[in-house]
Amino acid sequence: MSAQAINIGINESDRLDIATGLSRLLADSYTLYLKTHYYHWNVTGPMFNTLHLMFETQYNELALAVDLIAERIRALGVYAPGTYLEFAKLTVIAEDTDVPKAQEMIKNLVAGQEAVVRTARSLFSVVEKANDEASADLLTQRIQLHEKTAWMLRSLLE
């Protein structure tokens, strides 16, 4: 028995292109989740309590976001990546090789948040061409949240 064809008003080529882009967004988001969780566990210094709680809020939000992104990829008829190996190939966010000081953690997370924004923003041309409003809505929400989070983190550096 063959799988039923997907007929959601987006042709297969566009669905594959969108899913490929969303896979990069998923990898960036999951890598940022890992980095934020790592910092939550290991932050020290006078801003410990503030950063510990802030990082927890951020990684919890990212944990929910990766599920939404992966489910959108599946709705487009493509399997979502889900291994460290796949994410490492797809992400632009670098892993840490040590435990940075709190200020460096904040700077790294600003860069990570902004990287996710750039990845999300880069997908709009294919999403709009395909009239994929659901993916466009997801991207808009991700951009808005990551831009706000980057601003809040940057504010700690002033």
TrEMBL record:
Q: Which residues form a coiled coil?
A: none
- Report the GO molecular function annotations: ferric iron binding; oxidoreductase activity, acting on metal ions
InterPro entries, alphabetized: DPS_DNA-bd (IPR002177), DPS_DNA-bd_CS (IPR023188), Ferritin-like (IPR012347), Ferritin-like_SF (IPR009078), Ferritin_DPS_dom (IPR008331)
Identify the domain of life: Bacteria
The Ferritin/DPS domain, residue ranges: 22-158
Q: Which PANTHER family match?
A: DNA PROTECTION DURING STARVATION PROTEIN (PTHR42932:SF3), GENERAL STRESS PROTEIN 20U (PTHR42932)
Which family does this protein fall into?
A: Belongs to the Dps family.
Q: What is this protein called?
A: Ferritin Dps family protein
Give the source species.
Tolumonas auensis (strain DSM 9187 / NBRC 110442 / TA 4)
Upper classification of the source organism reads:
Bacteria, Pseudomonadati, Pseudomonadota, Gammaproteobacteria, Aeromonadales
